[in-house]
């Protein structure tokens, strides 16, 4: 079995103060993908940068205090790659992949966007560059008999069942028609698989992010924007998916919850 968890930590140093380390110590995961780390490796305490029993790899953003992704693995990877061959995003702290035996695991932090701003334009440029990479990457890994999963914060709710208040968010970044169509193209065009939705075909949710504003968490008014997106053969081997939602609002160490999938590899 291969167990993979992914979570947007909303600032790793803050998450550590709130309970991330205890979660990491307790997890059964073989691989943990982190997004929105924000800190550079030199800003992290030793027990977070190199925790016992883990090999850790970071791709911080060139812009200080922004983005940043990481992958923690129990087994040392055969190779590690940062970025996806697009100069604009090479040092943006948004993509990191590692090769384990037979499976490549990537941590993705897709830009969040904001309608009618440069942030949305950046998101659109990222999406335009990332889709052909995904198509080519699937072909490449499958041609040598490997599988791949891209874990992370994709910042798009794909369908109405993927967020509670979908009617009021139809003109908001993260649920725009063109963003949803792009994600459909990832699945139907490029042939990748939404693993959690395959295991839970109906919905609603399971939600993975709840704003800190108001009582969104208590009312489960969330969005499902954190995904395991895998090549078909690996998706067929997924046997269990869990959103590790905190028991109470006060026990949260991020505004996202870890999404954990067990694969029978």
UniProtKB/TrEMBL annotation:
Site annotation Interaction with DNA substrate: residues: 256
Annotated signal peptide: none
Keyword set, alphabetical order: Hydrolase, Magnesium, Manganese, Metal-binding
EC number: 3.1.11.2
Domain Endonuclease/exonuclease/phosphatase, chain residue ranges per copy: 6-256
Positions that bind Mg(2+): 8, 36, 153, 155, 255-256
Enzyme class: hydrolase
Pfam families assigned to the protein according to its UniProt record, in alphabetical order: Exo_endo_phos
Record family assignment: Belongs to the DNA repair enzymes AP/ExoA family.
GO biological process, one term: DNA repair
Single GO MF descriptor: metal ion binding
Protein name as it appears in the record: Exodeoxyribonuclease-3
Matching InterPro entries: AP_endonuc_1, Endo/exonu/phosph_ase_sf, Endo/exonuclease/phosphatase, ExoIII-like
């Amino acid at each position: 079995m291969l167990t993979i968890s992914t979570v947007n930590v909303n600032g790793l140093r803050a998450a550590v103060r709130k309970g991330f380390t205890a979660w990491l110590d307790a997890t059964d995961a073989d691989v943990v993908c982190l997004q929105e780390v924000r800190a550079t490796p030199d800003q992290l305490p030793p027990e977070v940068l190199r925790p016992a029993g883990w090999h850790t790899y970071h791709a911080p953003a060139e812009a200080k205090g922004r983005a940043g992704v990481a992958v923690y693995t129990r087994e040392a990877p055969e190779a590690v790659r940062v970025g996806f061959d697009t100069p604009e995003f090479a040092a943006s702290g948004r993509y990191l992949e590692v090769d384990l035996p037979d499976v490549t695991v990537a941590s993705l932090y897709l830009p969040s966007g904001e309608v009618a701003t440069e942030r949305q334009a950046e998101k659109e440029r990222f999406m335009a560059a990332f889709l052909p990479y995904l198509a080519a990457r699937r072909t490449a890994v499958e041609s040598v008999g490997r599988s791949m999963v891209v874990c992370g914060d994709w910042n798009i709710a794909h369908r109405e069942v993927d967020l509670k208040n979908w009617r009021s968010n139809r003109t908001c970044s993260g649920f725009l028609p063109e963003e949803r169509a792009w994600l459909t193209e990832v699945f139907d065009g490029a042939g990748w698989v939404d693993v959690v939705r395959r295991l839970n075909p109906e919905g609603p949710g399971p939600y993975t992010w709840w704003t800190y504003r108001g009582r969104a968490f208590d009312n489960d008014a969330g969005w499902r924007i954190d995904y395991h997106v895998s090549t078909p053969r690996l998706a067929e081997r997924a046997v269990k998916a869990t959103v590790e939602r905190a028991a109470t609002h006060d026990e949260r160490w991020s505004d996202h919850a870890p999404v954990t999938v067990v694969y029978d590899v």
